[in-house]
Amino acid sequence: MATDGTESEVPLARLLAMALRLLIDQLHQELGEAGHPVRPAHGYALVAVGEDGTTASRLAAVLGITKQGTAKLVANLVELGYVAREPHAEDGRARLLVLTGRGRSLLQESAAIQGRIEQEWARLVGDHGVHILRRSLERIVSEAHVGMFPPVRPVW
What we know:
The chain has helices at 12-33, 40-49, 56-63, 67-80, 101-144; strands spanning 83-87, 95-99. With 156 residues, the chain is mainly alpha-helical. Strand 1 (83-87) and strand 2 form a beta hairpin. Helix 1 runs antiparallel to helix 5 and helix 3 (56-63) packs across helix 4.
């Protein structure tokens, strides 16, 4: 509703941002309750590290943050026990960031929570509504990136 009392449509970008915020807030509240007191930046970093691991330089590029910011984020993830630094097999100067068991556990718990949130949304708009939303967003993102999905990157 507009401030003058008339109906007005909320811009789609704003709706998507609000929906993402709802999802992220609920996800992190439930992760905290499950013993994973992390911030959204941690989740984006852990997804970027992935099962194969990555370097701090690559992580900085994927997240779109400075190397200094990445160093601070990685140090925090190491301190929390989600990531470990290992020697890089191909580059003696680099360190490979890898998920620990705790890091993999967090990502598994995150996926389960996201599934529950999606089920809640399906109760609100129906399974078909969520299916259409998913397929529409997949098509929009895929078309913009030549049939691929880009790395998940936060909007800072």
